[in-house]
Hints:
By secondary structure, the protein is an all-alpha fold. The protein is 51% helix and 0% strand.
Amino acid sequence: MAASTSNKKRNAAKKDRRPKRKPCTFCAEKLADVNYKDVARLRKYISERGKILPRRISGNCAKHQRHLTVAVKRARVIAFLPFVSE
């Protein structure tokens, strides 16, 4: 009986645990802004299919994720980045 209650507690603890958030790379490097001309940096935040990675995967803070999205869209319009992968 005692073994089954400890297993329930252990399983409940596993469900409550969340992985540690990645630190925002822009905050860590203390960059002032996200530049649309910095194609090498922007490519890190785009998937193989050409989609912008979401915040939970990229690890960016909300502020820098908004700036990143605008920069990627600008780079696409100017043809620094493709809209879709080939």
